[in-house]
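Saturday, quiet lab. Running sequence design on the structure tokens for the scaffold JK sent over.
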């Protein structure tokens, strides 16, 4: 096996590349988890996270762990055994929500959708009808496995009409398109740092509304996961800063720098950059005879899901050649889409015209 060109050009479904500024911040000398300087840094970091989420929620933190920790944190804090929850499944990560909710002891009602298409609000309305008390409704905003963006507002409205909380997976969307947590009516959301936010993997930004906190305060049983218990985490992040766990301070340095970069670029400019880069990529892929997979009008500008060309008999070999010869990573399909699609991520620092030219040239050479 030859040497893979380095640094890698990360154009898969995550992680994405990070800037030299963020890498430099990651390499700072560590400080203690109760150092006053750390909490000053965290105040600014959390304020920037609120701006990025589009929320005023006081409980907005960089949870230790990747996006899956954020998913689990939201569900274990808000669900108790026996609760009825309604979950939209139109891809791999909707299935993950179901799996975790079941492990917490919830009665799960799945709202199934075709992979590659959105779940229409009517499907949620039909599922909710006649269910009685529902604890929460959850769906994936940007389904990483299919490249589809599901509109949130109508589903949130339906959840609130049934006096249920609305939870959204924003792992891929945060930092790459508007998520507007407060305006959309999202009660709890989680994301990851390694995609459009522009930091290395290892943290999961989460935010929770007053309605969500009321549910947490009124729990009849303790949260079954001690490490992800919001009340304990709030005790560390706010007020007396009570020791909970040894937080990854260097990841906080990196995330703080990544968020500063986002604010300097401006949210609208950043969203426009993701759209423009994705459009150029899809145009070039069309010229190569490669078709988009996701539903038109709902395609993600940071995760470009495409049909594998019929001429390709071994798609894994193509991706391996891209990595070995060009140091360039793209993603394959997950679950039901394994061997059927490729996923090209144009996220954060990876979303550049240069990378579009590189991946198109590399695909042209390999195909």
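Result came back. Writing it out in full:
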């Amino acid at each position: 096996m030859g040497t893979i060109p380095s640094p890698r050009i990360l154009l898969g479904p995550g992680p994405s590349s990070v800037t030299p500024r963020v890498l430099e911040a990651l390499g700072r000398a560590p400080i203690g988890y109760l150092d006053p300087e750390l909490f000053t840094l965290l105040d600014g970091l959390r304020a920037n996270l609120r701006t990025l989420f589009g929320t005023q929620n006081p409980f907005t933190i960089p949870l230790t762990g990747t996006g899956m920790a954020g998913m689990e944190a939201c569900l274990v804090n808000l669900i108790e055994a026996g609760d009825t929850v309604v979950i939209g499944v139109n891809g791999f990560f909707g299935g993950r929500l179901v799996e975790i909710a079941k492990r917490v002891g919830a009665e799960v009602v799945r709202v199934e959708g075709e992979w590659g298409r959105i779940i229409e609000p009517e499907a949620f309305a039909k599922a909710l009808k006649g269910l009685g008390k529902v604890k929460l409704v959850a769906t994936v905003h940007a389904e990483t496995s299919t490249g589809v963006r599901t509109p949130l507002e109508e589903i949130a409205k339906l959840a609130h009409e049934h006096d249920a909380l609305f939870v959204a997976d924003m792992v891929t969307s945060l930092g790459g398109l508007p998520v507007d947590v407060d305006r959309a009516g999202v009660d709890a959301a989680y994301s990851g740092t390694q995609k459009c936010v522009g930091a290395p993997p290892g943290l999961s930004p989460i935010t929770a509304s007053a309605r969500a906190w009321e549910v947490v305060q009124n729990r009849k049983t303790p949260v079954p996961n001690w490490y992800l218990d919001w009340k304990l985490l709030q005790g560390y992040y706010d007020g007396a800063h009570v020791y909970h766990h040894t937080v990854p301070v260097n990841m906080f340095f990196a995330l703080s720098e990544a968020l500063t970069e986002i604010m300097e670029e401006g949210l609208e400019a950043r969203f426009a950059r993701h759209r423009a880069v994705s459009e150029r990529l899809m145009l070039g892929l069309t010229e190569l005879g490669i078709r988009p997979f996701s539903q038109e009008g709902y395609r993600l500008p940071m995760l470009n899901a495409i049909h594998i060309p019929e001429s390709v008999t071994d798609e894994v070999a193509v991706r391996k050649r891209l990595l070995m010869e060009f140091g360039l990573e793209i993603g394959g399909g997950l679950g039901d889409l394994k061997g059927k699609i490729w996923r090209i991520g144009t996220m954060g620092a990876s979303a550049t015209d240069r990378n579009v030219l590189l991946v198109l040239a590399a695909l042209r050479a390999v195909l």
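Notes for JK: The mean pLDDT is 97. Residues 17 and 198 are 7 Å apart (CA to CA). Ask whether to fix the surface positions before the next round.
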